[in-house]
Specification:
Largest sheet: 8 strands, mixed
Helix content: 10-25%
Structural class: mainly beta
CATH topology of one domain: Jelly Rolls
Order of helices and strands: HHEEEEEEEEEEEEEE
CATH class of one domain: Mainly Beta
Length: about 200
């Protein structure tokens, strides 16, 4: 009973925070989304009509250096999430969900150089935080912004051997995140900067 209640709470939270994933589960399908490189800029709603959802990416190149980039999720379907509710734009980010977790970065938190354990979407629920790539680029995110971590192929760089990214909590309140880990794909999906379609 408790496990069922907790599962229902997680699904409800996903529907609220990531309507695209929740709707795909509820509808039993995964609408195709095109993913294209986007100009630099904060994550969030990039365009309204037609909609495009911008997300930040931390990825490793072929030499193992990590970088920051922005990409757009597009091709949302305009349909009812739960008939007879009126239609809304619905989509699902690429990747099959492997696990879902919460993370809270305490005030002053600094995570030393490390790579993500695998491909994962990180949704900031509250507070602010940043990641620094080995190329020196810093991406800062706050509430409602989405990041995709694909730097697990990062290799030691520079004399200090840094690899992956450096994480920093920013501000006077803890940072709360929802982390959705996705299954790595045999074709390399989940490690590329802009996520390929499934």
């Amino acid at each position: 009973m408790v496990a069922s209640h907790n599962r229902a709470r997680v699904v409800s939270l996903l529907i609220a925070v990531l309507p695209s994933i929740g709707n795909a589960w509820a509808a039993g399908d995964t609408p195709a989304l095109s993913v294209v490189p986007a100009p630099s800029g904060p994550a969030g709603l990039a365009t309204v009509d037609p909609p495009a959802l911008r997300y930040g990416v931390l990825y490793a190149d072929a030499e193992g250096r990590s970088h920051v980039q922005y990409c757009d999720l597009k091709n949302f379907a305009f349909k009812s999430y739960a008939p007879p509710a009126p239609p809304q734009y619905v989509g699902a980010p690429p990747g099959d969900v492997a696990s879902i977790a919460y993370a809270i970065l305490p005030v002053g938190y600094v995570g030393p150089w490390h790579a993500a354990p695998g491909p994962q979407w990180v949704i900031t629920l509250s507070g602010r935080w940043s990641v620094e790539a080995t190329d020196g680029t810093v991406m800062e995110q706050g509430p409602g912004e989405i990041q995709f971590n694909a730097d697990s192929g990062s290799k030691p760089q520079a004399p200090d051997g840094r690899a992956g990214h450096l994480t920093r909590q920013i501000g006077t309140v803890p940072t709360v995140q929802l982390i959705v880990s996705v299954k790595p794909q045999p074709d390399g999906g989940g490690t590329k900067a802009c996520q390929p379609l499934p």
